[in-house]
Model the fold of this input.
Amino acid sequence: MNQPLLSEQHTTESLANLLLSVAQGERHAFAELYQATHRKLFGIVYRILKNQAVSEEVLQEVYLKIWEKAASFDASVASPITWMATIARNRTIDEIRKNRLPDSDEEVDFDLIADDSMAPDDSFTKSQDLLKLEACLGGLESPRAEMIKAAYLDGFSRQELAERFEQPLGTIKTWLHRSIKQLQGCMNL
Done:
């Protein structure tokens, strides 16, 4: 049986309260926050890096940053898990940039790296923006909505998308570009 990525006993409010306690230096709250969220944040980091050892190191740095920046969390701006997932994603992207190999022949498109902060979780309610995004995705031509989800939610590279959808890489790039423009237009209505 799969374990949930977030502890089911924690709600948005309880995670926000834990962050508030962490901001006040309460170590037990930090330990509880870690237990409630480490699987989800590790999943974000690992999906991008695809290396367990490096992902574990980066995750330690993510939690150090959460400890240091907990006082800057603002529940009116983002949910606790979105705030922490953003820290995890940004730190992971920094790791890629810092350690990029000069002979790498694949260009990393950081906008296409999965952002789990947008992935809905059963224990949290969907925001109005997410509902609107789902409606806008429904307006895309098939299979473009599936491709956008594979790129942004599942972390597929453009090359992986080309193979999955049996299309040339240039076509995939064009479809992604046009689909994102269409989504932006829809979301701004």
Notes: The CA atoms of residues 24 and 71 lie 8 Å apart.
